Amino acid sequence: MTKLSVNINKIATLRNQRPQLNIPDLVRTARICLGAGVAGITVHPRPDERHIRGADVPVIAKLVAEYPDAEFNIEGNPFEGEYMNHCRRVRPTQATLVPDTIRQSTSDHGWDLAKDGARLRPIITELRSLDCRVSLFMDPLPNAMRAAADIGAHRIELYTEPFAAAYAKGDRRSVDAYRESAIRAAETGLQINAGHDLNLDNLGFFLANVPGVEEVSIGHALIADALEFGLAETVRKYARICAGGSA
Asked: Of all residues in the chain, what percent are helix, strand and coil, respectively (each to 5)?
């Protein structure tokens, strides 16, 4: 069974439009998700605080700690802003390292480990010393999986936007690179996560065709679906797909 982690960035984006009201409340939103059965909560605190703010991180960490089986996942670029300090302070279950910059509207590519592997290695070593599981955001390049294992990562998170875009156009062949990458990753001892633009339409197909996906992190589409179905029911729909069923 694949675990579902809900990314609450979009909730924070809406709150930040009128922050003095604290509506919607991140804690209340995350609690609804956890109560509906999600395995974890994901945040991505960017340096410009366009959505998740630094002050949100310990608050959400404290909430998740109330649920013994839930995981807290902090995404971000370890070379920018306060990312590493967030991890040092709250020691999340998982640290997902993403090579994004302030200029990007969202994450749009994985790590180039030929370029960045050497400087990531001590970061990964420190995060492991904090008892964080380390996941590297990676493009579906089978030959890159060995390098991720060699620098000490526990997992890779496959960047699924290209798959989602192809799927929306009726192209199912793009999943092949993800399947091969997952197989190669598993052969090196890595576990597999996936995320970005997965939704109710494409998630089931992806999980049926990519073996061994331990976790998916979903935010944008899930929050959009919640406007139609309600947040708790939307979480349950995604969780049913993760369990191998239909929404």
From this structure: 45, 15, 35
Cis peptide before 122 (omega within 30 of 0): no
Q: Give the residue among 53, 69, 67, 65 at the shortest CA–CA distance from 8.
A: 53
Q: Which domain holds residue 218?
A: 3-242
The token pair that represents 27 in the structure block: 């804690």
Query: Would you say residue 188 lies in a domain?
Result: yes
Q: For residue 226, what is the domain's CATH number? A: 3.20.20.70
Question: Would 120 be classed as within a structural domain?
Answer: yes
pLDDT score of 28: 98
Could you list the active site residues? 44, 75, 196
SS3 (DSSP) at 7: strand
In angstroms, the Cα distances linking 93 to 154, 159, 166, 185 are: 12, 20, 32, 21
Does residue 178 form part of some domain? yes
- For the chain, how many structural domains are there in total? 1
> Per-residue pLDDT tens for 60-70?
999 999 999 99
Q: Do 199 and 177 form a contact (C-beta atoms < 8 A)?
A: no
